[in-house]
DNA sequence: CCCGTCGATACATCCGATGTATGGCCTCAT
DNA sequence: ATGAGGCCATACATCGGATGTATCGACGGG
């Protein structure tokens, strides 16, 4: 194995074993390079790679640190990878989202508190009667993110965030051509919120399914 | 933004825009570096980072190529990230798997063909009466992978593969302390296979849920 | 006590040189 | 004519050093 890959594995090992904890600072480049037995250039390649997937955080003039390693950082790495996939796999991503989103909504139904419900309602109200496509998509993303956060599973939250990215992008690209898509989306959001307010788990799950399915159907017809 | 990050974005852009297609060969280091306006060392950092997440494939003495970009490569990058998460988040990963696995099993129920069913049965039969923990875990992993593959969604398949990794690892670490865990696992596998054979979607989904839930319960009690 | 300056530190970037693995071509024996 | 083997050009791998630049903390003036 190449020295750089070795270095990646060693740094990974130091973190996984607990020798390096989240927030810890790594020895400076030259020292770490000497310690691992390679040149600074090669070490930098390893550090850069781990930095791309948010394992390390390098700050010029300061040092290199281990990130929080929150599952949330999984999101960014995931969405980066997801960006490389073309339209033909977007439907597969959406199919996965169709599985996760209703489940997350159902989980949220039992856990979401009144303050969060009010915040959701306020967010929907904040959207004007004739929103732009960008506004609508941003609102949609935020609406679902808040609900999933209420489900209390950060892995699930990050995953859905990463999966929603490409869908959203596809939607913006295509420009939401369907006439009634806007009003239908808003109506479905209201319905989901209503089910959450009623603590009606099955209704929440069903509305979430309908919501994703309608996006899927639209995407399939325009793709 | 740093020159290396710029280079990463530019290379990403070349791939996403279609200027570079899967399997294409990149210009050699020195040329690409000149083209992007940076040094070879900095370019190498960018290439190394993209290589870690399986976007690029560098072959010494040959050249640097764009990988197939199959969703399957998402798997490896994901599992690499997942490795960094400690036991306390394993339950969250398992909760997500508990959502996905039953859905995938249900999808497979409608699509799996007889040959695949026979292969599943043969695989279960191949396991001896007193398998080692490693054998059992490997069998479990393979069993579920085959089913999920039959579901026909490569994104879902890769995702579950990545999620199953840490669970499996935790299971091996803990050594499957529960006495009847082995026989119960085998029994549940048989039940899932039986439901698939009967084309009984709801039974398949339920058995898959029970299966994951039992792992979850066990993990929760030993953690 | 607050704020601006200055210097030490550490990463950012580059250059040039050498090592090494790969693939293809060429030669030679059969 | 064909196949095996070796030779060589190519491209990545790795290194060491030099210089630029951002950050943080100490110090001193207002």
Which helices and strands occur, and which strands form pairs?
The structure is a homodimer.
Chain A: H1 3-16, H2 29-36, H3 40-52, E1 56-59, E2 63-66, H4 72-82, H5 87-111, H6 114-126, H7 133-150, H8 154-174, H9 181-197, H10 201-222
Antiparallel strand pairs in A: 1-2
Chain A binds a DNA duplex (30 and 30 nucleotides) through helix 3.
Keywords (chains A, B): DNA-binding, Transcription, Transcription regulation
Protein name (chains A, B): GntR family transcriptional regulator
Organism (chains A, B): Streptomyces varsoviensis
Can you describe what's shown?
Chains A, B: It holds the Pfam family GntR. Chains A, B: It comes from Streptomyces varsoviensis. Chains A, B: InterPro entries: GntR_C, TF_FadR/GntR_C, Tscrpt_reg_HTH_GntR, WH-like_DNA-bd_sf, WH_DNA-bd_sf. Chains A, B: Keywords: DNA-binding, Transcription, Transcription regulation. Chains A, B: This is GntR family transcriptional regulator. The structure is a homodimer. Chain A is mostly helical. A two-stranded antiparallel ribbon of chain A has the order 1-2. In chain A, a hairpin with a 3-residue loop joins strand 1 (about 55-60) and strand 2. Helix content of chain A is about 75%, strand content about 5%. In chain A, helix 2 (about 30-35) crosses helix 3 (about 40-50) and helix 5 (about 85-110) packs across helix 7. Chain A starts with a helix and ends with a helix. The model of chain A has no long low-confidence stretch (mean pLDDT about 90). The first copy, chain A, has ten helices and two strands, in the order H-H-H-E-E-H-H-H-H-H-H-H. Chain A has two domains: about 5-65, Winged helix-like DNA-binding domain superfamily/Winged helix DNA-binding domain (Arc Repressor Mutant, subunit A, Orthogonal Bundle); about 75-220, GntR ligand-binding domain-like (Four Helix Bundle (Hemerythrin (Met), subunit A), Up-down Bundle), CATH 1.20.120. The interface of A and B includes residues 45, 53, 55, 78 and 85 of A. Chain A binds a DNA duplex (30 and 30 nucleotides) through helix 3.
């Amino acid at each position: 194995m190449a020295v750089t890959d070795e270095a990646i594995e060693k740094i990974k090992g130091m973190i996984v074993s607990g020798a390096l904890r989240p927030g810890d600072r790594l020895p400076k480049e030259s020292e770490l390079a000497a310690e691992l037995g390679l040149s600074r250039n090669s070490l930098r390649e390893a550090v850069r790679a781990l930095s791309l997937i948010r394992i390390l955080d390098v700050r010029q003039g300061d040092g290199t640190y281990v990130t929080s390693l929150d599952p949330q950082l999984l999101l960014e790495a995931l969405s980066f990878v997801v960006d490389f996939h073309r339209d033909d796999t977007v439907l597969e991503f959406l199919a996965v989202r169709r599985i996760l989103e209703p489940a997350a909504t159902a989980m949220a139904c039992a856990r979401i508190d009144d303050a969060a419900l009010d915040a959701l309602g306020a967010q929907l109200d904040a959207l004007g009667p004739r929103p732009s496509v960008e506004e609508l998509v941003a609102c949609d993303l935020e609406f679902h993110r808040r609900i999933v956060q209420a489900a209390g599973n950060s892995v699930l939250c990050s995953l859905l965030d990463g999966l929603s990215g490409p869908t959203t992008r596809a939607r913006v690209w295509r420009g939401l051509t369907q006439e009634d898509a806007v009003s239908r989306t808003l109506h479905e959001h209201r319905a989901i919120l209503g089910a959450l307010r009623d603590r009606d788990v099955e209704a929440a799950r069903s509305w979430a399914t309908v919501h994703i399915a309608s996006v899927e159907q639209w995407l399939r017809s325009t793709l």
